[in-house]
Design brief:
This protein has about 475 residues and is an alpha/beta fold. It folds into 3 domains: about 210 residues, FAD/NAD(P)-binding domain; about 110 residues, 3-Layer(bba) Sandwich (FAD/NAD(P)-binding domain), CATH 3.50.50; about 110 residues, Enolase-like, domain 1 (2-Layer Sandwich), CATH 3.30.390. It is built from 12 helices and 22 strands. Strands 1, 2, 3, 4, 5, 6 and 17 form a 7-stranded mixed β-sheet that branches. It has a 5-stranded parallel β-sheet with strand order 8-15-9-10-11, with helices on one face. Strands 18-19-22-21-20 form a 5-stranded antiparallel β-sheet, sandwiched between helices. The longest helix is centred in the N-terminal third of the chain and has 26 residues. The model has no long low-confidence stretch (mean pLDDT about 95).
Amino acid sequence: MSDKYDVVVIGAGPGGYVAAIRAAQLGLKTACVEKWLNKEGKPSYGGTCLNVGCIPSKALLEASHKYAETKHDFADLGIEISDVKMDVKKMVARKNTIVGQLTQGIGGLFKANGVTPLHGTGKVLSGKKVEVTGHDGSVQVVEAENIIIASGSVPVEIPPTPLTEGLIVDSTGALDFEEVPARLGVIGGGVIGLELGSVWQRLGSEVTVLEAQDSFLATTDQEIAKAAKKILTKQGLNIEIGARVTGSEINGNEVVVTYADAKGEQQKTFDKLIVCVGRRPYTEALLANDSGVNLDERGFIYVDDHCRTSVPGVFAIGDVVRGPMLAHKASEEGVMVADIIAGHKAEMNYDVIPGVIYTFPEIASVGKTEEEVKAEGTEYETGTFPFQAIGRAMTNGCTDGMVKIITEKASDRILGMHIIGQNAGEMIHQGVIAMEFGSSAEDLALMCFAHPTLSEAVHEAALAVDGHAIHMPNRKKRK
């Protein structure tokens, strides 16, 4: 077998494996380098997302939600169950089984599409060569007409809370607790912190979330963020805003955390501490000094709108480049780059990438927030509609939250949609499709939505933009 390929992909996460499969489907001889080993020491595909991110966290979120629902909500439905217990080890084992099935599935897709897996650590050399160092220390160099870097990201560590086996963990360690900690601290009130905090709070932990920023979910539409904080606090999450962690001390089996907030210096003691203050691009030992690939001032690989790096024929996608660190963004970039390499015209619409926080209720958004639109000086209108006025939400026992639509005043074109509510992560795609096709709020308002569904809230929010919502009194529109 020749060691020359049309495409060599470094990384088999959601960006890399999708890019490799697409490239192979387009007739390009493709290899994909991946260094990840599972707990059994075998090669594992799917990167952070499948192994220790999106998928395992959703498995725990689903299990913990069903447990909390059974314990607290079933009685209202007339279902009486006593003595509900959670077997944490069984819950984690189920999570591991799902991860195993999906990661093996990617191996099957590589085989079916003719992608050559190369196990080991990839390094970009000059002259479009990739050095692959195997787990046994063996080194091989492969040549490529094109290289796609999809090396992903890793959790950020902070000096005040160095990771300590079993006590202070990152998001990966938080997926493998064997029992429910009585007192759990979460540093970082972003997507990962809220999701992991929710899992363990539902199972009985007393959870405190310490967020350094002065506003909750600062990049989320603040009307939605305010509603989210209220709902999550009511559920039992203790969310401290403007809490800057300054130090930690291990005291036996406890962690004492020191932080500063508006009241001054505070201390709290926890049985476990999860540090999730963001992620950074993973570029360690990735680029030879003479590779020619440049990083930007924040450590991301510099790319243009088509994910081209500073070296012709070398592309980079996903978490290692600018833009939101989202699995689906990485995948779409992978498809775009493979298409470009194959000689097709390909674009990606970065203005219409949805984001979801999988708390309960879910928080989902696409497009611009009201704060962003206001800062740009665009004249706009908004329409909101609460789930409490939606029949299906009542029957489901999930009336928390709302749908919000933001439009450009002059054209009525939808600039953003934001949802907090049950199934928000599914419903947001109505906004994605509408925005991709340049829809106005009136377009949505003129459509016939099925009754009774949660999606009727989208219809009513679109009607509300023009002050025509049917099932709630309309607020007076700005002049």
